Amino acid sequence: MTRTSRLAVSLAGLLLVASASRASGQLSGTYTLDPNGSGPRNYPTWGAAVQALAAGVAGPVVFQVAPVTFRETVVLNGIPGASFTHTITFVAPGAPAILDASGAPDTITLQSTAMHFVFRNLVVRGASSHALNLNGVNPYTPAYCRFVDMTFIGPSTNTFPASAALISMASHCDFVHCVFAGGHSAILCSVMTSNVFDRCEIDGLGAALMLVLPYTAHSYPQWAHDADNVWQNCFLHDCHPDGHAFYFDSQRYGGCGNMFWHNTIVVKTTRAAVQAGSRAAWTACQSWRNNIVVNLGTGPCVVYGYEITTSGMCLVCNDLDHNCYHAPSATAGTVQLADGSFGGSLAQWKTWLQHNPQAILPGGGSSYDNHSIEADPGLVRMTAPYDFHLRAGSPCLDRGTSTYVAGPWVTFNPTARVASDFEGQDRPIGCAVDIGADEGDTLAGSGTGRIGSAVALHLDDAPAAGLPYALGSSLGTGPIPIDTRRLGLAADALLFLSVSGSCPAIFTGYRGVLDGQGKAQAAIGIPNLAGLIGVHLHSAFVTVDAAAPSGIRSISNPFSFQIAK
Q: Residue 475 domain-assigned?
């Protein structure tokens, strides 16, 4: 057969497939979801798009969602033809689209057969029960769904089980750069496995009694539990004044292999920021490493529970270490045991463990919190509005680990590591990583800070070596608090001058490319103007990477000083 005839046969085959797809009503390609749109490839409502999907898909499908408010509820079932290559995506390509349930129980429901959906850049709100209801079947249903840049806002009530997201008996879903806010628990988990929460913000809005509540009803058998889920680079904050951030205490079995790596928690509560179980709730094979836990209330950072065994009351096989705890107002100690037999500082906790080796069963880490520290973590701002970057000099810098305790009890990959931080900045390989969600860059300065003098700034961001950088300085209130969605500095005239490279007599080296070691030098010349005396000047730098979230690879800790006479 000649090349020409082979091509003709191939084209004929493609035409037949396309013709069959049209005949069956199957979707393929890009469509719009816009109440003000028109044409055969536009759907005015979510309901119309879901109805069209019922016929199946013949290829990957993308619905570009208009940035308007849709007052609808969405229920998705299995779609014929959906697969790893034929995904179904709902994305707002510009400003976020809003999906509002107007008081209905759930805004988006994914039934047990719904698989291979992708959601991007949507605000989901208005439900009386759950903004997202990801509903699997027992045992786990592999959903293979992905949620990116999503905001789930739960009901205003904190009555159980209201939540921003209910994830029940579902598995293999990724939540990346998402916000979960409000409800009784911002995230309510029930018998889920192999899900990943990366770079997510979990906000209790000051009312949620639990920010994350893994909950398994007592009627399930022992194997039915929350297992092998990953929580990394997440920021949890603002639970109820009598609430918790992570709460492993209301279920019969807490599961195995849940991984809590590099999270930052800031709450103000009379209770434990992290309730690590009583009875069997914090059972076995949990990995709790490189987390910052701050409780600004009177409660502790962590309450550890016991598992009842034939040998007595024992902590079970877990891998818990290299954390930073800070509870400056705790009335009964930073670390406590659930039965009340211990409450004290982290140092006292380590001493207690040395004198009670029977409390830890063989199989997990040799001790709890052996390398953990109790100290102010040095966050840029740990009251609202938050900025959970690490300051220069933070005790969390280079104090973490990418090594986990291996053993036959481990259900997750013991060679796994968290490769990047909440901004997508690389964590180093072969040396210590930082504790918490931020892998800090070092920005240091030197000089008198007086009018008429210069302040030298020294940048060090080894993982971003070779990337362009811009260093911005701002007067007055300083940098905008940095979170997972908004990266930037305060918008004033000085900032615009510095990042644009203007006023070279004042700004030197404020734009350039980091050298092979990720270093750069910059300087600011302070004009000899009496009106500047007493003004605060704040500087921070960003590295630019088109492939990174928001086009920014990393943002440094801010360097601040007050201009002197």
A: yes
